[in-house]
Amino acid sequence: MAESTSEAGQDSGSEAGQDSGATEGKATVPVPGAAAGGPISHAIFRLARLHRMFAGQLLRRIGLHPGQELVMMHLWELGPQRQIDLVRLMDSDAATMTRTVRRLEQAGFVRRRPSPTDKRASLIEPTAASHALRREVERVWSQLEDISATGLSDDERANALATLERLEQNLVRADAQPAEPSAEH
């Protein structure tokens, strides 16, 4: 990925994941003036975009797309699940989950079988082929963690995780509150 700032060019000779300090504390893309009121939100946007890009690159090497590995993680952990339960578990929507499960099924990583308790539903379960994939997914996630947290001490990692969890809880609480009426423009 090409970086958008002139500082990025100064760091082009360093290995990926090494901290040269050249861009430490600076955005990798220019922050638009309209985002001045939300620097944390803009940083989250940038971080999420980069994280998803790296995850996509690593996951494609093992035949997955971002999000598919999360479905597989839940299936490996919990065993067979109804599709609607996967939707709720992942805070997804039915259409996205249908596509994800269909692609995983076509790749041979999951199969559907009738639910023994609900004749209208089917259970999604991991296949034997997916169990070899599990080790690869765990390796990819460890690699993504290393890339993301390079140069952070154990205390800094713990503090970063605590801050991210707090930001997540703020958004969960805000989502649970009724929306305030917006001012007419």
For the structure shown, list the relevant keywords:
7 helices; three-stranded antiparallel beta sheet; 185 residues; disordered N terminus; single chain; mainly alpha
Describe the structure.
The chain contains seven helices and three strands. Helices cover 56% and strands 6% of the residues. The two termini are 39 Å apart. The chain has helices at residues 6-10, 39-60, 68-78, 83-89, 94-106, 128-149, 154-176; strands at residues 81-82, 110-114, 122-126. It has 185 residues and is mainly α. Strand 2 (110-114) and strand 3 (122-126) form a beta hairpin. It has a three-stranded antiparallel β-sheet with strand order 1-3-2. The longest helix is centred in the C-terminal third of the chain and has 23 residues, at 154-176. The chain is globular, with a radius of gyration of 20 Å.
Please write out the topology.
Elements: H1 6-10, H2 39-60, H3 68-78, E1 81-82, H4 83-89, H5 94-106, E2 110-114, E3 122-126, H6 128-149, H7 154-176
Antiparallel strand pairs: 1-3, 2-3
- Taken in chain order, the helices and strands follow as HHHEHHEEHH
Strand content: 5-15%
Low-confidence spans:
1-23
Give the number of helices.
7
What's the story with the biggest beta sheet?
3 strands, antiparallel
Number of strands: 3
Helix content: 55-70%
Mean pLDDT: 85
How would you classify the helix and strand content by structural class? mainly alpha
| Silhouette | globular
Radius of gyration, CA atoms, in whole angstroms: 20 Å
Give the spatial strand order of the biggest sheet. Answer: 1-3-2
Q: What is the CA-CA span between the terminal residues?
A: 39 Å
